[in-house]
Amino acid sequence: MKNSFNPAVMSLTICSVRRLTSWAVTTKPRLYSTATWKPRRTLIENLGTLAEGEKVTIAGWHCQERSFRDFSFSFLRDATGSVQVVWANDMKNSFNPESVLAIKGRVRRRGEEQTNDNLAGGDIEIVAEAVEVVNEATADLPLTPNLFHVTSEEAKKSLEKYLPSEELRLSHRYLDLRRQSQLQILRQRACIQRNIRNYFNDLGFVEVETPLLFKSTPEGAKEFVVPATSLSQKRGGKGAFYALPQSPQQYKQLLMAAGVERYFQIARCFRDEASRADRQPEFTQVDMEASFLSREQIMNVMSGALMSAARAVGKETAISGISCCAEDGTSGLFSNVSDDISLHRVLTYEEVMSQYGIDKPDLRIAFPLLKNVTKMVSSWENNIPFLNAMKSAEGCPSFENSPFSRYQPGVIAVVLPTAGRWSRSKVEALKKLAGLSDFKDVYSSFFSILKRGSWKGGLSKHTSVGERESLEEAIQGSEGDLIGLFACNHLEKAQTIAGRLRSSASIMMDPDSSWKSRATCLEALWVVDFPLFRLAEEDGLAAFEGREWEPSHHPFTSPADTDVPNFWRALGKKEYESGEEHSNSLPAEALGHILEGQSTNTSYSSLLEGLTSQHYDLVLNGCELGGGSVRIFCPHMQRAMFNVLGIDNGSTAFSHLLSALSSGCPPHAGMALGFDRMMSILLNTSSIRDVIPFPKASSGTDPMTGAPSRLSKKVEEYLKQVL
């Protein structure tokens, strides 16, 4: 027999409520001490285990009222779920949304027709007998979550659709976190961290907390500095500062010198850079370092760490491209790590740049790969306008005499399937999204394929039918495709802008297009063999401003074993060109290579450009999830690296590290995974701000607290005196 609401039963319930002495319906907020709140409550997620009519006490947040003639409904929500509460109208007073209530009542099963399948616990309700207002919310809350603990994905999307702006939600984050989705993310964050800790513990890694107050050293990104006022006064001078760590990089290398051998930490890091959808000024990373492990072994360890994180949210089987193969089958606290990476998808830096135009390719995009058509285009008989413009640009080397190099001139073709049918305004929007205007020295030409050998726009007037057909065949272009050609005196720049256009076009594809990227997939790969150095950009890393070259990773990355001789030769060439003298304390082998470098005809820049590093990145869905490298553990090579990078104060700024490397430091390697970025991808959120409890806005500010803020005049005057 179905349970239905009976006003007579409710009337009897009201009479019993009026006889209660310890509980009463309170109509005004009351002040409570922690000793006042005594009732033992039942969590809402456990109500389903109780019998029909059983007395229960629940507590939580009040929301969603609906009133009828003789009774009314509301919902009470706690951290575990929501339940419908039935009230008699002469018993219940109107409570402001989000007020904290404690309710005594009886469990009642709802009939099949009244059961709410979209709501966790939707088959039961509580008939209220008494209520206490523990803490009433104000009536003018700027944000009322008012969202239930629903079960179906469709219901969740329906509720999330009406969210207020992100700025308002960040300004009142403590209210926004009451939403079911946000509470679930916090739990998943804790679960993922627990899984990662257990994983590293099982492999014999030691969790070590490293200091947050560190020394300012030139590592790359801009630092946050902290004035050390008391130390300045004690030293009798001014200007003493700490720096918040960009990463625990130097400390974990010091731990290797200390003999820890296997270290990990879920670390807080700080970088003074503009916030983006995937970047924050303070963030969390899964940091590790290990002695006597190879690049391949580190890759296996961190693949396993990612898989353990995915397992916490039930997505370990959804990731393709990597495998959890860290242990080699041995047992014991210090389990050996396998060096077999055959189960991973691994591409070199040169491969990803030539095929995808980016060092973190999104393998969900099924577009044709980029094609280098330099030889074909440069051999065409007619004058090609955009190619002539590039050739006449200042500093452009000739196509014929330039050796293969990522800094040689080149022409890259990108095929955008079906985009040839797009409107002109949509194509212009694509160019804007890809940021074509950011590359002033890249020359481009666009055309659409009408049919084989027939083009519209671009080079259609400057090419023969045979040339057009040959290019179509080379790039696998088809009718209706949009083709982009990019020429630059630096091949890598042409690859980069073509890669941007390719990625942007996948975003702009119609939702029902077969070329739309597969949003639900998780495609991972490892990228290895990065260049050791790169040409410094105009707005390059703060630590290397004014330098021609900067490290692709950081100054502590070791060159590939096969490139170590050329590294020393480059140093010798630099000394020869600048008139510097090398140190006779270097090992004999290094001195021999330095002398070879001084006598070689190869330029210093060419030697540096050809060096490969032992740097490796883990990429997931087009996002650099983390990076690492085999470290320099020889003090002579580390000093030489500082010399090449022009870090004049290297011996002073990094004296602690050089001293540790000189004390018998073992060979070591490490890596760090961006924890917030990893969570955002695994949980498919639009921004890492969605997975951080209290994130900064895109401007880098905290709308809730108003940070950063000006100091008081008294504090400012004090700092001026001591600093």
Structure description:
With 723 residues, this protein is an alpha+beta fold. The protein is 30% helix and 20% strand. It contains 22 helices and 23 strands. Strands 6, 9, 10, 11, 12, 18, 21, 22 and 23 form a 9-stranded mixed sheet that branches. It is globular.
Detail the topology: elements first, then pairings.
Elements: H1 7-18, E1 55-67, E2 71-78, E3 81-88, E4 100-109, E5 124-135, H2 153-160, H3 166-171, H4 173-176, H5 180-202, E6 206-207, E7 225-227, H6 229-234, E8 241-243, H7 249-257, E9 262-270, E10 282-291, H8 295-312, E11 319-320, E12 346-348, H9 349-356, E13 371-372, H10 374-378, H11 385-391, E14 410-416, H12 424-434, E15 443-451, E16 454-456, H13 465-475, E17 482-488, H14 491-508, E18 522-528, E19 533-535, E20 549-551, H15 564-578, H16 588-599, H17 604-609, E21 615-620, E22 623-630, H18 635-645, H19 650-653, H20 655-661, E23 668-674, H21 675-682, H22 713-722
Parallel strand pairs: 3-5, 6-9, 11-18, 12-18
Antiparallel strand pairs: 1-2, 1-4, 2-3, 4-5, 7-8, 9-10, 10-23, 13-14, 14-17, 15-16, 15-17, 18-21, 19-20, 21-22, 22-23
List keywords for this structure.
single chain; 723 residues; alpha+beta; nine-stranded mixed β-sheet; five-stranded mixed beta barrel; 22 helices; 23 strands; globular
Brief digest:
The chain is of the alpha+beta class. Strands 6, 9, 10, 11, 12, 18, 21, 22 and 23 form a 9-stranded mixed β-sheet that branches. The chain has a 5-stranded mixed β-barrel with strand order 1-2-3-5-4. 38% of the residues are buried.
Our estimate of the beta-strand percent is: 15-25%
How would you sum up the major sheet?
9 strands, mixed
| Number of β-strand runs | 23
Q: Helical proportion?
A: 25-40%
Number of helices: 22
Backbone CA Rg: 32 Å
Report the end-to-end length measured between terminal Cα atoms.
80 Å
Assembly status: single chain
Helix/strand-derived category reads alpha+beta
pLDDT < 50 stretches: 1-35, 329-333, 400-404, 538-546
Average of the residue pLDDT scores: 83
Shape: globular
